[in-house]
Amino acid sequence: MILWNDKELTPYWVLAGGCLLIWLLLFARSRIPVRQRDDRPVGVQIGNGQTIGARNEQDDYFACAVQPHGVLAVLADGISGLSGGKVASTTAVETFIREFEELERFPDPEEFWDASSHAANQAILRNLLGIPGGTTLVSAMIKGKDLYWGAVGDSILAVFRNGELLAINHKHTLESQLEEQYMSGEISEQEALDNPQRKRLVNYLGYDHFKQMEIADEPFALQPADKIVLCSDGVYNSLTEMELETILAQDIPPFDAAQAIIDLIEEKQLVHQDNATIIILEQGW
Question: Which N-terminal stretch is annotated as signal sequence (predicted)?
């Protein structure tokens, strides 16, 4: 018969008890839901696509920045009729991204877009060195479940929800002004439709008289399964709304959806196909 000494038993019981306590703590931790702070970005999937179309040069430019305090997507469409369109779009996007990445916390949206747009406008004018140039710009910031945005020109921001695209911003073209004049009774419908300058931009970056961007009055509340779409006119002038919605309705990653949209544009082989660029963001919940 072997006799155990109580003093020799003590370390084994302590070790066993410690192991049991650690296991219980790990089990309890695994049952507690982890909450993510509201000021940290929930995972956002980002997809993009681009084609030069029938143009000799790609005047569209885009970029995204993911920071601890939020996500920024920016898309600019250099004005093709001006020789400095590529310089303008590149300068604008790089300015916005730099301003965002230098922030230590999520900014006041109105202050951010006001400061960034004027900084971009001045940078474009300096870089052009007197050469005609300009660009549209549409940008979206995501913080938690809120979508903030700012835009100038005719590139668009939309949210795909429940099978349809919801337009968020307005086009800054003469066409929009003509529609307002028609609605107020100042001109007839035919006069609005027949104006040969209706597609002309009335506000853009790289413009001596630029005043301000169109900025959201309040954040757009995102819902699960929403897809945020930024695109240049080369996309929405080439595809119907139904064609866009059909692709966006597919259960595929944003990158695949963006590529499918660009593929469809290229398949059409339109004679005067403009540069076309699209960014799609889908938030994880």
Answer: none
Domain ranges of the chain: 44-283
**What is d(CA 203, CA 184) in angstroms, rounded to the nearest whole number?**
22
> Of residues 35 and 203, which shows the higher confidence score?
203
Tell me the whole-structure pTM to 2 decimals: 0.80
**What values do phi and psi take at 73, rounded to 5?**
-120, 135
* CA neighbor of 58 nearest in space, from 85, 29, 40, 35: 85
φ/ψ (deg, to 5) at 63: -165, 160
Amino acid at 91: T
Which among 90, 91, 106, 104 is positioned nearest to 141, based on CA atoms?
106
Kindly report the CATH class assigned to 44-283.
alpha beta
**b/e 130-147 (16+ beta carbons within 10 angstroms → b):** eeebbbbbbbbbbbbbbb
Give 47's strand partners. Answer: 280
Q: What is the pLDDT of residues 88-129, one digit of tens each?
A: 999 999 999 999 999 999 999 999 999 999 999 999 999 998
Burial 255-273 (b: 16+ CB within 10 A, else e): eebbbbbbebbbeeeeeeb
